[in-house]
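Anyone able to model this chain together with S-adenosylmethionine?
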Amino acid sequence: MSDYQQFIANVKKKTGIDLAQYKEAQMKRRLTSLYEKRGFKSFQEFFKAMETNDALFHEFLDRMTINVSEFYRNANRWEVLEKKILPKLLERNRRLKVWSAACSTGEEPYTLVMVLSKFLPLSQISVLATDIDENAISRAKIGVYAERSLQEVPEEMKKKFFTKEGMYYKIDENIKKAVTFKKHNLLADPFDTNYDLIVCRNVLIYFTEEAKQVLYHKFNKALRLGGILFVGSTEQIFNPSSYGFDTEDTFFYRKME
Ligand SMILES: C[S@@+](CC[C@H](N)C(=O)[O-])C[C@H]1O[C@@H](n2cnc3c(N)ncnc32)[C@H](O)[C@@H]1O
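re: yes, here you go
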């Protein structure tokens, strides 16, 4: 077993996280640069140190989960969600069951609530937001952001739902209340069912082809008939019908009825 394979096995035993389902070259490069920076010579040495050094372990977790996010990421897709997808979903059902999977530091689920608030009172909106990374979830719950993550937020939404505090912007408490955050590993934990909308963006790119295919099937099962999967703007599904999806619009897939 190679140094990296052994590391994968050790990490899985320690955390339940299966690095074998992430694209190898990319992940190996990210982690090698971290351990070299910290003065280790191999994955084996790195893992041994991680066992007793919590700060190093957290640094590892931080490096393997790539938390970059922003509000209204790829704004034109959010416009499609608002103008085309949501009106159709809401025709059938006013209480939508919505999941932001791999929500990182909260920009995505909070964007969802802001968009939904154009149709429904905040008290009727609830979004489940999950991520494997507890640090990201803690930051999401705080809900304070640097200006750069708000670049795509429409001015009216910025005025309505953010308060400027020094260099930072704090999200409105009522938006926060509409989101429930939970730790969840897409590659290991069970999925709930009957979702109207699942948003899973900019995480599938890090997974192997095999892992992605398993996930497309699982997302399909988790949606109700006619429910929508919204993926990231580099994550087009090439053969949606083989997973039970029709293409509703670019990067939006509808579970076939
Ligand atoms: C680049 S961020 C994407 C955030 C947001 N969805 C967006 O598009 O802006 C990727 C997120 O995926 C999370 N992640 C990585 N592996 C995961 C897994 N196996 N299960 C759940 N989340 C995972 C990371 O912790 C990180 O927060």
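DSSP finds ten helices and ten strands in the chain.
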